[in-house]
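seq/struct pair 1
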Amino acid sequence: MSEADHTNAPKLALVTGASRGLGAALAEGLATRGYHVLAVARTVGGLEELDDRIRRAGGSATLAPMDVTNPEAMQQMAEAVANRWGGLDLWAHTAIHAAPLAPAPQIDGKDWAKSTLLNIEVTRGLIALLEPLLRLKNGTAMFFDDPQAGEKFFGAYGATKAAQIALARSWQAETAKLAGLKIVVDAPTSMPTAVRARFYPGEDRAVLTPCKAEAERILQQYL
């Protein structure tokens, strides 16, 4: 696509962690608003189901079955966004590693390493890669808080999720007075996601807010 073509391209929304839960719901909601969705996740089946739903609703998506913990893959993705779309209008980051609940002294080292890699290091790396692309389109980056830090048995998830949000809030504060970039940090209500089911297996999921309803609330509030 040439530079002239970029000006006529649809708005591009990148959703990391798009195959299920809030990420999938945000992808569907963005597609109905005229965004072309770049859907990133490792689960190919979930991405294909998402694509089917988006197309049935009249939207469009590009599926990117990639591992966000692979720096080379993320670099290639960023280059493709620059070359094909000329920048990024929106990034919604929902990818997360939810380590099993455990007392602090019993947190598994491998789970801790996965949590710090995906929840903190990946976020740092993506911010560095995507900020220039967002600035080209006066874009918006969205992060989603889940304040479990300090709760018993939530050591790995709570600490690394809190660190992710602290990083996002620092970026938000640093860019608050700069034109061309908007950083959103939202705290969604409880939804019947796979992550929550792992944490609260006996919970009555019928009383939780559907992911689509919460995604609609978020998009209406910030777009």
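seq/struct pair 2
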Amino acid sequence: MHELILHHYPTSPFAEKARLMLGFKQLSWRSVMIPPLMPKPDLTALTGGYRKTPVLQVGADIYCDTALIARRLEAEKLTPTLFPEGQEFNVASLAQWADSVVFQHAVSLVFQPESIAVRFATLPPEFLKSFMADRGALFSGGQASRLPLEQAKHQWPTLMARLQQQLAREEGDFLFGEPSLADFALAHALWFLRGTPVTAPLVDDYPEIAAWLARVLGFGHGSLSEMSAEEAIAVAREAPPAALPEEAFVDPNGFAPGQRVAIAAVDYGVDPVEGELLFCGAEELILRREDPRAGVVHVHFPRLGFRLETR
């Protein structure tokens, strides 16, 4: 068995989602720090161009997007489960909504001028300028657009009221009674808002939600140890990719195994990754690519939210 290697940086909200899932499952993992801004040459040596954070590496298999990382962690250790029996559809659907709609609101609220001034107060002005330019490029060309701040402020009480209602209706301490992927998908956006005193009241003014968030964050991050990017690339280079899933290859648009394709996100961070299409499953796409540093790797993407194009 290969070690779980998470490529991330401390302030990334989606990385916090992945770290909490690792903690929930009480897994041991290796931590590789990546830059928050492009270029990210060590990361893209593994992914082929995918730049979003985090990325999970298991040997020569590279998993992009926390929706798919959750399923890979589920395969690594089934219990405790991220997808409680009988709630699989509800959990996955609410998590997808939280990762898009709630996170979109959080981004607008976090990047309002007053919050930015506090968040970047100790950093040089040049970094803030570079950061904003990088995030502008991240949201260029995709279907996602920046939600106007006024609209985010206007709608936030509705989102919090719905969350409070769901927590009040369940007998347990989590969104569906027992912990699930839905909790972690909602928690990371609220954790992001808690980052400055400007936006923290958007969470802390709702005591039941703040208490639920404390329970989710209480799972911690599991057992981690540091690893360098060079060591992680060497792991990929020296390991054979895992066997493909036994699930049937299904694509209604005529793509076939062995075809040269590009896979890209449709919302933001739409940089395409080119390679040989190996697998199309109900939840997962797998691409084979070869890199001068990392060797032969299999790059895994969720099917939902990503597109295939011929090359």
